């Protein structure tokens, strides 16, 4: 890292810096100034400041309702983009009931135009999310989420005939379920897995690394089930604050499918079999007599037994 950047930051003189975990996309550092105050610095090499624009907008939007790191500065230095945040002295566990309540309050916030989407898209790895406003959630989710991921998977040569058959059935079922369900466009975190929240020293939740847009609130909740990390208190806190609508358990698998397709598009074949299992467990019959859904433990078992983490990717055993 070019330490000359420190002189550009709106903080006291930086005395120390240390690389820390910040995900697969950005370089991340913990900075300490001459007064002992810590900061969290993200750097994206060879990108303009626009790289962090959506995250900055998202953090500021979320901060109006839930706890997030404070955006202190963002910009460009030489060929790189940077984002400076307040540092959270986090601990491994905290008040999950409160976290569920805060997410529910976030989901009560509505889009400014009663549509689904956002004023701008965002990029995660090789995936660019199209957030063009749409009046119908079904079209937004299928066309601007699943279909774009399908194209990326095809480009990697991982899309099989079996997957196409299962995918077509799943889309048909999703559209049928949506005919009787009309979600309000809620403000979403957009990437709510267990790595994107933490607890401060008082055990209070802090939401990080959002990919915000307005959509079905069940989208966020579906993602929480994929990798685990959210306990019964979290879901109870949510339900006590903003109860879910009837039939949610039949719709969640499709949002879990989105997240698995995203990981397949980014990390490869380790997720291919899991995605197929997700499709096969989604409800597909026409009379509704045998509708099924994916409980949280399904994903826990699949990932514990079938996947191991290696550096920046998961591969199938």
Description:
One of its GO terms (molecular function) is kinase activity. Keywords: Kinase, Transferase. It comes from Lentilactobacillus parafarraginis F0439. This is Fructosamine kinase. The chain has 9 helices and 13 strands. The protein has 317 residues and is α+β, with helices and mostly antiparallel strands. The protein folds into 2 domains: 3-86, Phosphorylase Kinase, domain 1; 96-316, Aminoglycoside 3'-phosphotransferase, Chain: A, domain 2 (Alpha-Beta Complex). It has a 5-stranded antiparallel β-sheet, covered by helices on one side. α5 crosses α7 (248-267). It is globular, with a radius of gyration of 20 Å. The two termini are 36 Å apart. Mean pLDDT is 85; it is low at 281-317.
Number of helical stretches of at least 4 residues: 9
Q: Oligomeric state of the chains?
A: single chain
Q: Please, what is the CATH homologous superfamily of the largest domain?
A: Aminoglycoside phosphotransferase (APH), C-terminal lobe
Shape: globular
Q: What spatial order of strands do you see in the largest sheet?
A: 1-2-3-5-4
Counting structural domains, the number is: 2
Q: Span between N and C termini?
A: 36 Å
Rg result = 20 Å
| Share in helix | 25-40%
- Reported by name, the CATH topology of the largest domain is Aminoglycoside 3'-phosphotransferase, Chain: A, domain 2
The averaged pLDDT comes out at 85
Q: Which CATH top level class of the largest domain fits?
A: Alpha Beta
- What is the element string, with H for helices and E for strands? EEEHEEHEEHHEEEEHHHHHEE
Please state roughly what percent of the residues sit in beta strands, choosing from under 5%, 5-15%, 15-25%, 25-35%, 35-45% or over 45%.
15-25%
State the low-pLDDT regions, or none: 281-317
GO molecular function: kinase activity
Family: Belongs to the fructosamine kinase family.
Protein name: Fructosamine kinase
Keywords: Kinase, Transferase
């Amino acid at each position: 890292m070019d330490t000359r950047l420190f002189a550009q930051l709106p903080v006291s003189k930086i005395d120390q810096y240390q690389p820390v975990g910040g995900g697969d996309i950005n370089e991340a550092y913990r900075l300490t100034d001459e007064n002992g105050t810590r900061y969290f610095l993200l750097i994206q090499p060879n990108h303009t400041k626009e790289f962090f624009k959506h995250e900055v907008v998202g953090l500021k939007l979320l901060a109006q309702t839930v706890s997030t790191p404070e955006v202190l500065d963002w910009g460009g230095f030489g060929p790189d983009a940077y984002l400076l945040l307040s540092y959270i002295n986090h601990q491994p566990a905290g008040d999950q009931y409160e976290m569920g309540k805060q997410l529910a309050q976030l989901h009560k916030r509505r889009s400014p135009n009663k549509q689904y989407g956002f004023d701008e898209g965002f990029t995660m790895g090789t995936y660019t999310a199209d957030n063009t406003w749409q009046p119908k959630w079904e079209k937004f989710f299928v066309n601007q989420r699943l279909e774009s991921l399908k194209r990326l998977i095809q480009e990697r040569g991982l899309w099989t005939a079996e997957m196409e058959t299962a995918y077509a059935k799943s889309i048909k079922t999703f559209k049928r379920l949506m005919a009787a369900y009309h979600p309000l466009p809620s403000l979403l975190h957009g990437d709510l897995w267990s790595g994107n929240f933490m607890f401060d020293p008082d055990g209070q939740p802090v939401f990080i690394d959002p990919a915000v847009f307005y959509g079905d609130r069940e989208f966020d909740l579906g993602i929480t089930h994929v990798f685990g990390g959210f306990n019964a208190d979290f879901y109870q806190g949510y339900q006590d604050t903003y109860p879910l609508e009837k039939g949610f358990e039949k719709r969640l698998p499709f949002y879990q499918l989105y997240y698995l397709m995203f990981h397949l598009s980014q990390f490869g074949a380790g997720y291919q079999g899991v995605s197929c299992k997700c499709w096969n467990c989604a409800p597909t019959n026409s009379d509704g007599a045998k509708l099924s859904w994916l409980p949280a433990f399904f994903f826990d078992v699949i990932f514990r037994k079938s996947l191991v983490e290696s550096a920046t990717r998961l591969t199938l055993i």
